[in-house]
Design a protein that fits this description.
single chain, 122 residues, mainly alpha, 80% helix
């Protein structure tokens, strides 16, 4: 159960992170947003990133083996990175419709999944 909760929280966390880091690139198409200066955009992104941390910190605390969770620190990091790239891929396809995924992207994702597999191998 802690593994599922950890992964769910990491997915939520990374969803906010992707919006904070890359959402402003698309939000600039909104009339009111396009008039904002860089400092305003940074502050809005920080506000969104706050919610990233609201999910990231509990995910790591719940999932960390030394806190009673199922994952080592290295395993948590690899899981988090794979989730980040998966969330980014979905976000890119939905929000930035001009982006396309090619075979080399799919191969790279397969290697990331293999990285997770080997990370959990004893």
């Amino acid at each position: 159960m802690k593994a599922v909760l950890t992964i769910g929280l990491l997915i939520l966390s990374n969803s906010f992170m992707i919006i904070a880091w890359y959402g402003h690139l698309k939000f600039s198409e909104l009339k009111w947003f396009s008039k904002l200066g860089l400092i305003s955009i940074i502050l809005i992104s920080w506000g969104i990133a706050f919610f990233e941390y609201m999910f990231q910190v509990p995910a790591n605390r719940i999932g960390f083996k030394e806190n009673g969770g199922p994952f080592t620190l290295i395993q948590l990091k690899v899981i988090q990175e794979v989730i980040t790239l998966a969330v980014f891929a979905v976000f890119t396809l939905i929000v930035f419709k001009t982006e396309t995924f090619r075979m080399n992207h799919i191969i790279a994702f397969v290697f990331l999944i293999l990285a997770v597999y080997f990370m959990f191998k004893k």
